[in-house]
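Long-time lurker. I teach an intro course on protein structure, and each term I like to show students one example going from raw sequence to a predicted 3D structure in token notation. This year I'd like something fresh instead of my usual example. Would anyone be willing to generate the tokens for the chain below so I can use it in lecture? Attribution to the forum is fine with me.
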Amino acid sequence: MPSDRYGHPMRIGLISDTHVPEAPELWPQIHDAFRGVDAILHAGDIYDLGVLDSLAEIAPLYACRGNGDDGSSGRPRQPDHPCLRDHWLVELGGVTIALTHWVPVPERPSVLGLRGAIDRHFGVDVVPDVVVHGDTHVEDIRVVRDILCVNPGSPTFPHNLTYRFGTVAFLDIDEHGEVEAEIRMLTDDGHDVFDWEYWGRRPW
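-- Reply from a regular --
Happy to contribute to a lecture. Here you go:
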């Protein structure tokens, strides 16, 4: 990529599957965690668009419709909102980020692959640096076909269980366009480093 795409370092908050009002409200720790970020990306299953209004007060917001927002799950289609699209393709800090609710990550031979999903949602000529997705309520960071794929999990119903502290994520982009992703666990006092080894071997 040409160097003039890059700018100042950026920190981007990632969130998905908030499911309000099934979850009574967003944990206040979420708002505290996102204070000072340069942008927030919500990967869908919002339900109550008031969630978008509250997040947009913190930073520029991009949100995509999930199956619980687009009418495909039996719920009514949520109304239009200036921050909401079916999918977003945005460039932040010189990094091209595709935001969509579901992609087949991890890939399985029996379903459409990641490249096919990108082609369907964004076009055959689009090669994003990062894909931000949700749907599973399970946090995940992995590189697939040279694309960094990040699922922030759910802050309210982690691993599809009851209303409890879950996860959010961050993308950190440096001045050279290098990207690092991090999952954070919400806690009583705010948020903490996600313990992959501990939670990876325990049910929620």
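Some talking points for your students: The helical segments are 28-34, 50-56, 114-122, 196-200. The chain has one domain: 10-197.
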